[in-house]
Amino acid sequence: MAKKDIDWSNIGFGYMETDKRYVSNYKDGAWDAGALVEDSTVTISECACVLQYAQTIFEGLKAYTTVDGRVVCFRPDLNAERMVDSAKRLEMPVFPKERFVDAVVQTVQANIDYVPPYGSGATLYLRPYMFGSDAVIGVKPANEYQFRLFATPVGPYFKGGVKPITIRVSDFDRAAPNGTGHIKAGLNYAMSLHAIVDAHAKGFDENMYLDAATRTKVEETGGANFLFVTKDNKIVTPKSDSILPSITRRSLMTVAKDYLGLEVEEREVFFEEVPEFVECGLCGTAAVISPVGCVNDHGKEIKFANGCTEIGPVISKLRETLTGIQMGQIDAPEGWIKEIK
Ligand code: PLP
Ligand code: COI
Q1: Which fold has domain 8-154?
Q2: For ligand 1, atom 9, which residue shows the shortest CA distance?
Q3: Fold of the domain spanning 165-326
Q4: Alpha carbon of 159 to ligand 2 centroid (Å)
Q5: For the segment 240-279, what is each residue's pLDDT rounded down to a tens digit?
Q6: Is 155 within 8 Å of 10 (Cβ atoms)?
């Protein structure tokens, strides 16, 4: 085993082709045995359901090198479960949970030389996804599907790493009530592209989406959930049926409560409460927990008292503890770490 010659500390959040990916096909009502393949391209019908009607779902998780040199993944069983929920909502066949976790293990093993070294700040991002692959022209689910999982080494999602970012309140909605905001469907991201390009063009790093029905409650950004800190150090996170149930957010709530002794609350968060919070973070696999320094509400700036120019103390402690657990410096709760042997 020889690590690839990559400048690990300076890679961004981008795609880099690696050696092997896992592929399994669904046909005649059953998944085939699945295998690792070298071909990084996909050949499908010009009329494939994914191309016409966006029947595609995905997941995202990471493999890390621990302080003692082991390679581990973080809670892949929860990604497997969420993909089951996503599949059911888009009328796709379920890829079995055990097979999902096995595909993660096989893909990491096959690309072990791409797992960034401990301390580099980079990780191996894993992207499982599934799409309707056969031709449909009437609006209906496909009959055939492909599940794929590739790996790509990545650096920080937000340039600047732990420097607080500035976000704006979006006038575009991300998810409808009773829609698909709670699952990881490609269509949720397609409809966020205009909003993110527009935000970047206006100098903002991300969008804060409000609930589409009343536009009074905080939902999430295009790729991460919110955590807020009150002046009494309580952690508050929005509860909504139209946001993605982030695995990082669920883990951070446990970390806050059980490791840091903080009070945690998952509840509706009204936008008018935002100025009362002293710190704000965006959490997700890609974002880990990235500090937000300022929210721009149509020209009116809300600056977080303890985290405006530098990462605040509570978000910083949460980040340190979670990454410590992921990198093996801090004991993890039972079942959180899947070692790749
Ligand atoms: N919210 C959205 C819309 C996302 O795309 C993601 C990324 O996966 C998250 C939240 C964070 O979820 P997780 O922590 O499971 O990666
Ligand atoms: C992740 O955090 O894994 C995501 O999927 C967010 C974004 C890259 C879509």
Answers
A1: D-amino Acid Aminotransferase; Chain A, domain 1 (3.30.470)
A2: 224
A3: D-amino Acid Aminotransferase; Chain A, domain 2 (3.20.10)
A4: 15
A5: 999 999 999 999 999 999 999 999 999 999 999 999 999 9
A6: yes
